[in-house]
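To close the section, here is one more complete example, presented without commentary so you can practise reading it yourself. The ligand is S-adenosyl-L-homocysteine.
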Amino acid sequence: MEKKKKDIRALTKDQLRDFFVDLGDKPFRGNQVYEWLWQKSAHSFEAMTNISKETRQLLEDHFVINHIQVDQMQRSSDGTIKNAVRLHDGLVVESVLIPTSTRTTACVSSQVGCSLDCRFCATSRLKRMRNLNPDEIYDQVVAIDSESRLYFNRPLSNIVFMGMGEPLMNYNNVLKAIEKITSPEGLGMSPKRITLSTSGVPKMIRKMADESVKFKLAVSLHSAIDEIRTSIMPFNATFPLKDLRAALEYWYSKTKSRITYEYVVWEGINDTAKDVAALVDFCKFAPSKVNLIEYNPIDDGEFKQASSEAIDMYVSILEKNGITVTVRRSRGKDIDAACGQLANKS
Ligand code: SAH
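Output:
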């Protein structure tokens, strides 16, 4: 039986250098190959033109490059692009390019499916199949960067971990991917242009704080009242608001980095003055920003976007309390690319 070949991008640079040294070659060969794998994002050993034919064959005999493949690309009337991304084992995730006049943002997935159970989110209907590897996250970013250059004549400027999955439930791989994205040996992007969005896993928020990460944090809050939050995000019963808040206080004490809250206002769920008061109380321990996101209906109408009066009430009370607030319009709705709509429909 043929030995299963190893994914070469699971190797660190040192391991790759050692591989060559063990074969009597120079460690420098490892650097060259590493550069092809990450900075130049080679899809095959064959593409590594400054490596001898024999060495390429050697690599071929030992390793595979499990590069992602963009199977299908859909373009929205507003310029948003959604990619259906096929992984080496045939599973599919989605990633989105969101253009504005000044930036291009990549919205990337961190898991196939999701283990959380947010009742308003289409991805939660897919069961979690597996975590993405660091290279599979990295490749999504590279693919969107190429699309940005091709269609908008500029490189990618920002990355948000707001695609499929809960990044803090795939912590190690997400951090390894970010490390490659920000490293000069990878894409060299500033961590300040990266936002990790989480439903709030307190233990992992503390871990991130301890590791002094430099990217930004966004929390999908949607309600600052336990009973309500649990009814729409059932895992809140396991990670109640007081634990989330304590973890966020710890995050702020360590990083001094402002926290963004994502928040949808739904009719009859969280659209009263009492809900806003709880939100104000929840986020006043640190400089905060609230993004009021438009609801993207995913099915039968159990959830309905609140009235514009309710949204205006949120805005005025939050502003009165010195909390920055923005009202976000959805992008890419016509191709099911907006927040909460990623579900591999096509
Ligand atoms: N699991 C992470 C990453 C997903 S981010 C997290 O929860 O933060 C996707 C964002 O879209 C989250 O803020 C999520 O709460 C929000 N969202 C999910 N379904 C939505 C929907 N139908 N309409 C609008 N926003 C939605």
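Once you have examined the tokens, check your reading against these statements. The longest strand covers residues 92-99. The pocket of S-adenosyl-L-homocysteine is lined by residues 118, 120-121, 162, 166, 197-199, 220, 262, 264, 293, 295-296, 298, 339-340 (CB under 6 Å).
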